[in-house]
Amino acid sequence: MRYSALSIIRNAFSGNRDWQPAWREPEPKPHYDVIIVGGGGHGLSTAYYLAKEFGITNVAVLEKSYIGSGNVGRNTTIIRSNYVLEGNEPFYELSLKLWEGLEQDFNFNAMVSQRGIINLFHDDAGRDHYARRGNSMMIHGVEAALLSRDEVKALVPYLNYNHARFPVMGALYQKRAGTVRHDAVAWGYARGADMRGVDIIQNCEVTGIRRDATGKVTGVETSRGFIGCNKLALAAAGNTSTVGQMAGLELPIESHVLQAFVSEGLKPVIHHVLTYGGGHFYISQSDKGGLVFGASLDFFGSYAQHGNLATVEETIEEGVSLIPGLSRSRVLRSWGGVMDMSMDGSPIIDRTGIENLYLNCGWCYGGFKATPASGFCFAHLIAKGVSHEVSRFMRLDRFERGYAIDEAGKGPQPNLH
Amino acid sequence: MASLITCPHCGSRPKEEFSIRGEVRSRPEPAAPFETWYRYVYVRDNPKGRQKEYWHHVLGCRRWLVVERDTLTHEVYGVTDAAAYRASEVKEAAE
Ligand SMILES: Cc1cc2nc3c(=O)[nH]c(=O)nc-3n(C[C@H](O)[C@H](O)[C@H](O)COP(=O)(O)OP(=O)(O)OC[C@H]3O[C@@H](n4cnc5c(N)ncnc54)[C@H](O)[C@@H]3O)c2cc1C
Ligand SMILES: [Zn+2]
């Protein structure tokens, strides 16, 4: 059923008893053309675009828990395309363009809100860095503005403008950036894929990858039995190494936990996405009124979906130092997600050395904004056998070849990206 | 939780005093093949479970340590000075 204002009215008259589930709960078939491991944003968007754009519908998404239980439902929902490097910027800009048309495309309200991102800087080096970033965006045809201190003050008057150590000197501003309701993204893609024939199979953990004598992948062992496939596509985010090991893949990935926080509901007070250049703190306000914020990784490798208190303290100290008024609001919840941190902070969308095995990983803490383009480019690769133009730098062998995409210039130290 | 790390030199100290390098991988000989160096620099085992890691006690004795830890439960099993760890590794290899 297509969702529309009319369908809401019609269902209201019948007491809302006729709504159908948004996707089926099918039993796994013995064999699929494509199996996708991981029902996060990237797995589901890959399935959606495979079916919608490339006509491949005999597809299953296998999710060990329920869809949206991973990072797609744990992130702080920021979307933007303010990258520097040639390997990244066109990709993230395609993603932002897809976000702009997504709700009409998959007929689901994902609450895409282009409220703008303000990346603050507090010293000359910070300004140079952001000027360069803005220039790089403009070279790639993406609008950016460098705001003066007064312009920032007019937009966000509530910051600590008398900060002794980190005075606000200005900001890089991308107006088209914003936030999206993350659960709705998982649900919208799931529904759109399901409508086109894709089987979304929840509570189905992949426990092994079966290969024939030539080494070619032929299917997966799962908690619900063996399921055969022609092509196997991994989109397991924080569990990429664990799943990759099932096929003997050696990967440039470390798993780390990132925490996020939400305050009690407040009246609208923060109208943009804000990032603090004196630390890693960032914040926005959800439509329900909760302040959604976070900062750095916990710094040690982790597969636990929760973090430790020292990071909570650090995050909130940073926040209060930038926005003193925050000290009066109460934190309602905090949680963690397991990030697939790559060696250069950039993702991988590629084939592997193993026939029929495709890999999508390395999203670090920036993969939510990538969800549409990641699915589109991964589907393109799976369907056509060649990389999409904008993801052509995101190769698995780039480290070996000396072509890392190191946006932050930090080197092969994942906890610093 | 890995909130306290027992440094062999300084005793039980809060984790925030340390900086973390990541999993212990033995450094190849300078003339080792390119492939070996590539794997040392870029590839990680990234196990879900027990792992040995390099930690640096930056706000303490400034010694490098090897911390054996569980990446899922965050339980710490043991902490050794990295030089002592290396010596025992070399000795094991020789035996
Ligand atoms: C706290 C936090 C804040 C973040 N903030 C932002 C942000 O503001 N903006 C942004 O762009 N990005 C952000 N991110 C990053 C973003 O959420 C991730 O990069 C992205 O969601 C990862 O892709 P995914 O949605 O496919 O992952 P996931 O949703 O984690 O999907 C992977 C799925 O694979 C499943 N799986 C794993 N192993 C198996 C198996 N063996 N068998 C079957 N299924 C399996 C998992 O259960 C999981 O559902 C944030 C992340 C966190 C944790
Ligand atoms: Zn010490």
TrEMBL record, chain A:
> Which Pfam families does UniProt cross-reference here?
DAO
As for subcellular location, the record says:
Cytoplasm
Q: What is its EC number?
A: 1.5.3.24
Please give the SUPFAM superfamilies that the UniProt record associates with this protein: FAD-linked reductases, C-terminal domain (SSF54373), FAD/NAD(P)-binding domain (SSF51905)
Question: Which InterPro entries does this entry report, sorted A to Z?
Answer: FAD-dep_OxRdtase, FAD/NAD-bd_sf, Rhodanese-like_dom, SoxB
UniProt GO molecular function: nucleotide binding; sarcosine oxidase activity
Q: What is its main location?
A: cytoplasm
Q: Which GO terms describe its biological process?
A: tetrahydrofolate metabolic process
Please write the reaction equations for the catalytic activity of this protein.
sarcosine + (6S)-5,6,7,8-tetrahydrofolate + O2 = (6R)-5,10-methylene-5,6,7,8-tetrahydrofolate + glycine + H2O2; sarcosine + O2 + H2O = formaldehyde + glycine + H2O2
Q: Which UniProt keywords apply?
A: Cytoplasm, FAD, Flavoprotein, FMN, Nucleotide-binding, Oxidoreductase
Family membership:
Belongs to the SoxB family.
Name listed for the protein in its UniProt record? Sarcosine oxidase subunit beta
Organism expressing this protein natively? Gellertiella hungarica
Automatic annotation (TrEMBL), chain B:
List the keywords (alphabetical).
Oxidoreductase
Q: Name one GO biological process term.
A: tetrahydrofolate metabolic process
Could you say which enzyme class this protein belongs to? oxidoreductase
Question: What InterPro entries does its record include?
Answer: SoxD, SoxD_sf
GO molecular-function annotation terms? sarcosine oxidase activity
Q: Does the keyword Oxidoreductase apply?
A: yes
Q: Indicate what this protein is called per its UniProt record.
A: Sarcosine oxidase subunit delta
Q: Recite the lineage of the species.
A: Bacteria, Pseudomonadati, Pseudomonadota, Alphaproteobacteria, Hyphomicrobiales
